[in-house]
């Protein structure tokens, strides 16, 4: 039934992308991508974070320009110089993050987004008409701040529909919606498709794609790795295609994990800090000395919140929720936790893990003064800080003219090496590190992995939060998947099935209970 | 690169801000202020040469003029150092004028309560009361900010007017000099409550030395201690401060209490120094001018000494030009405003470049 609305193969595709490549410094974001969307088709663009989905649609919508390749619109090559040009062609896009003015009304917000002059009264009538036709109830004169997230998304969709688009791009539209809102959105999209509007639907949620989409293009590492009919595939097979079969050869350390639990998290709940934030729900796990514990998951599923809860940037409701070497730490702030031996590397280096305008020496003081004896009363021992900075630069091969260089002047990969090294060389008892090898080259990644392994061998408990599943499979002893703020049961990495992890990442629940290797943490998992 | 249909002005941050420029811009701002002043004098019908001379040069030619410069600069430096500490942490205390007033009220209260008493302990007690008065007054915005996230710019600014009205209430009412022919002045403080004079025949008092010491202490605190480090991190990267475990609310309290306390001490020095009693208006806007002083001094305590002297000159030069060539008093305020304007403008030009660019370009 899903294919009813499709035209025959003879008409040219509404949109065709041929051999499109886009290169950013140090990364090939899109590598000769080919795919086509036919009129009235709901076409899924599926891939992990960093697979190149966003870059691709930004080029289609004119936000970025391709380095190579052509974009064909109704069979004609076009050059989409900017979003305005895209809209003139008939391309509409609903972004993941809305750009709405809270203090203004729905009508005013929509009027602001229209190209050219607008007659407000006529526009209000059209908004009501469109919202009736597509089951997207909207009151033009309501102020945006009074609306729910789902209602706000409707504004963005209606804004696109008012331009009578022939192709609607939806970027992760359901990430902020309730299940009921998702169902409603799908009905709207199906209705649009049946009227001939093509829809490019970007997601990593396998079930949604199966239910909604007619065709799927799967991206991995910037390349198209497969095309499939989602209805004919299972979520498992799509997960395999998305993540890839080839897993990096693993040189496992012998017998990871001692007997002493160094980090214990039991029933951690954390409300979202901001609108659209993720709430952590009943997270429990234990990490033993000598063990590397991985947390996999698609970005934005609570990894940042979990990092903040573990580092002490946000406090748990009860001290016993987080225990370090048996001591209650849930109510301790970051500095006090460092003294207990918890060091952390947050995902964002500039402005979070390091102060960009400060020198490397000063950035050592930032997170090192608690453990490295860099203070005498209130005075900073600048020479000691410099010596430690030099040690980090040497051990992790940080390319910098000197330790007086500002953190912001280092390249992303070099700053990453510095930040990771700064924490590892403090010999922490518990190390929590997010995206340890993000942006560094293969050699540096190996250095960092080796340093993590050495730290674990010396008895530290290590938590690695990463979106790079290959990395987790290569270096962890056990791993769990975080999805919408809920942590799955831990799996023993050596026995883990990639497809199963992919399903957990895509939020497929209700599978058979997963194997529970060791640790009491399992009792609390959903 | 040029492919958009529209060209528009685009403001882009420069890759590197040169360190030299950091020091050049305040000087450039002063020069441009003087040049604009020149044009202003001509437009107002004053002879530019003599007016400039009386405004900027003649106050510096006599010992008395120089001593007055220090007397005016002292409160500006003290308050500027305190405010700069907060500004570094993105804590915007705009109400130093009110904290100065409250400090003066507290210290003046001590002086009046101990009227005609002798004792070397009276001045230190007044200073302590002045610091406490200013700090307590700054505690109100600190509490509101840390507890309810109320913008400290608004609260501290509005409280200024409350403080000056409170002072008026006191000097028009209960604290009025009983032998003062109903003028709104308190009694003249007796000797034990007056700051010692450093140089005979001038108003140069001990407080000016204290102001210099405070600037040096502020420099040590901001540069070499973990407290200054925490303040700088909080201002530059709040998320990094949280990551390091620095308490935002403690630092907000510290900055507001310190800047309030220093403003209170400046108020104490004013009434125990040049003024010698409580009057309805004890400051020609030192608390506000110190904001300009802090920025002109690059938020650096030693730079603030220099900028404090420059701004003090604008007060004295304004008075001098008023006496000598009849320049309106308001010109002083115009000069101070011009200076801040040129400083911010030259900073902007140093940090950003403005260029014509296509309306929409490549963005990664």
Q: Please count the beta strands of chain B (DSSP E, at least 2 residues each).
A: 2
In round numbers, the mean pLDDT of chain B is 90
CATH architecture of chain B: Orthogonal Bundle
Name given to the CATH architecture of the largest domain in chain A:
3-Layer(aba) Sandwich
Structural class of chain B: mainly alpha
The class by helix and strand makeup of chain A works out as alpha/beta
Tell me the helix content of chain A. 25-40%
Distance, first to last CA of chain B = 14 Å
Q: Helical proportion of chain B? A: 55-70%
Report what the structure shows:
- The complex is a heterodimer of chains A (526) and B (364).
- Chain A has 526 residues and is α/β, with parallel strands linked by helices.
- Chain A has helices spanning 53-60, 83-89, 106-113, 120-133, 149-161, 179-194, 206-212, 235-243, 303-311, 334-340, 360-368, 382-395, 412-424, 442-457, 469-475, 498-505, and strands spanning 15-24, 27-37, 42-46, 68-73, 76-78, 91-94, 167-171, 198-203, 215-220, 223-228, 261-270, 280-288, 292-296, 322-324, 327-328, 342-345, 375-376, 379-380, 430-434, 461-465, 478-483, 486-487, 491-492.
- Chain A has 16 helices and 23 strands.
- In chain A, strands 13, 16, 19, 20, 21, 22 and 23 form a seven-stranded mixed β-sheet that branches.
- Chain A is elongated.
- The two termini of chain A are 35 Å apart.
- Chain B is mostly helical.
- Chain B has a single domain, classed as Orthogonal Bundle (ABC transporter involved in vitamin B12 uptake, BtuC), CATH 1.10.3470.
- Chain B has helices spanning 19-44, 48-57, 63-88, 96-113, 122-148, 152-172, 206-224, 226-236, 238-244, 248-275, 286-296, 301-325, 330-351; strands spanning 7-13, 352-358.
- Chain B has a two-stranded antiparallel ribbon with strand order 1-2.
- The longest helix of chain B is centred in the last third of the chain and has 28 residues, at 248-275.
- Chain B is globular and about 75 Å long.
- The two termini of chain B are 14 Å apart.
- Residues 1-5 and 360-364 of chain B have low confidence and may be disordered.
- The chains are: A alpha/beta (526), B mainly alpha (364).
- Chains A and B meet through helix 10, helix 11 and strand 18 of A and helix 8 and helix 9 of B.
